[in-house]
Amino acid sequence: MTRNPVFCALDTTDPQAALALSRRLAGLVGGLKLGLEFFSANGPEGVRAVSDGGLPLFLDLKFHDIPNTVAGAVRGAVRLGPQMATLHACGGREMMKAAVDAAADAATKWGVARPQLLAVTVLTSMSQDDLAQSGVTGPLVDQVRRLAALAQEAGVDGVVCSPHEVDVLRAQCGPEFRLVIPGIRPAWAAANDQKRVLTPAEALAKGADWLVIGRPITAAADPAEAARRIQDELAGAIS
Ligand SMILES: O=c1ccn([C@@H]2O[C@H](COP(=O)(O)O)[C@@H](O)[C@H]2O)c(=O)[nH]1
C-alpha cells in the first residue's frame, strides 16, 4: 500500500484520551479526524494539542448555516491547518461557494495550505426510511447524486458519502473529485448506529479516496492492533 487511506475518528470529549490514542496510532493510520464531540468540549486549543503530533488532520465540523456565518466559521477552521474540513451540501450552492471563497482567503491570510472542503451528502447513519421522514421520498442514491452535483458546481473538492454510493459518484464526478467515506466496518466490527456500511477493502475497491473509521479502532480492546488488522486487510485486498 503506497499510502494509508484511513483517518481514525477520535470521538471523545477527553483530550488526554485523544492524545494518547493519536500517539498509539502513529504509523498505523493515515490521519486523525476530530469532530463535533471533541470540538464542543475542547475547542480550537484542544484541536491544536492533539494535531501537534504531525498526523494529517481532518476537521469534521459539518458547517450548515447561512453563507456569511459558514464563511466565518471556515476562516476559523483554516487557522487550525486541517488537510480536510466539512460542511453540509444541503446548505446549498451559495453557502458552499461562500465556504470555498473563505477557505482560499483565509489560507492566504494565515499563510497555511488551503484545506480540501468536503460536502456531506446523506449521513451514513440514515436509511432510505430515515431520509423519507425528512420529506425526501425518492431513492436515497438519487439524493446523494444531486447533492454531489451541487457540491461540485459550487467548487468544493469532494464529498462525504457512504461506501454504497462510491462507485456511482466516482462515475458521475470523475477521478479528481475526492470521495471520503465513513460507514466503514470490518467484518469483525459492530455496525453501531451506522446503516450504510461496507468493509474497508470493499470501499477502497469501489473508488474511495479516504476511509473514516472510528469505533472499530477506538473501542477495540487494543486500538493499535485493530488499526494494524485493518492495514493488513487493505494491503491483502490491494495485492
Ligand atoms: O455521513 C457521515 C458523516 C460523518 N461521519 C463521522 O464519521 C465518524 C464515523 O465513526 P464510526 O465510529 O466509525 O462510526 C464519526 O466521527 C461521524 O461523525 C459519519 O459517520 N457519517
From TrEMBL:
Tell me which Gene3D superfamilies the record gives: Aldolase class I (3.20.20.70)
> Could you tell me what reaction this enzyme catalyses?
orotidine 5'-phosphate + H(+) = UMP + CO2
* GO function term, MF aspect, one: orotidine-5'-phosphate decarboxylase activity
Q: Which BP terms does GO give this entry?
A: 'de novo' pyrimidine nucleobase biosynthetic process; 'de novo' UMP biosynthetic process
Superkingdom as given in the UniProt entry: Bacteria
Q: Which UniProt keywords apply?
A: Decarboxylase, Lyase, Pyrimidine biosynthesis
Q: Does the keyword Lyase apply?
A: yes
Q: Where is the active site?
A: 60 (for ompdecase activity), 62 (proton donor), 62 (for ompdecase activity), 65 (for ompdecase activity)
Domain Orotidine 5'-phosphate decarboxylase stretches: 5-230
InterPro entries the UniProt entry points to: Aldolase_TIM, OMPdecase, OMPdecase_AS, OMPdecase_bac, OMPdeCOase_dom, RibuloseP-bd_barrel
Annotated binding of substrate, by residue: 11, 33, 60-69, 124, 185, 194, 214-215
Keyword Acyltransferase listed:
no
| Functional pathway | Pyrimidine metabolism; UMP biosynthesis via de novo pathway; UMP from orotate: step 2/2
> E.C. number, please?
4.1.1.23
Can you supply one Gene Ontology CC term for this chain's record? cytosol
Q: Quaternary arrangement and interactors, per the entry?
A: Homodimer.
Purpose:
Catalyzes the decarboxylation of orotidine 5'-monophosphate (OMP) to uridine 5'-monophosphate (UMP).
Q: Which family does it belong to?
A: Belongs to the OMP decarboxylase family. Type 1 subfamily.
The family database entries (PANTHER family) matched by this protein are listed as: OROTIDINE 5'-PHOSPHATE DECARBOXYLASE
Give the protein's recorded name. Answer: Orotidine 5'-phosphate decarboxylase
Taxonomic lineage of this organism? Bacteria, Pseudomonadati, Pseudomonadota, Alphaproteobacteria, Rhodospirillales
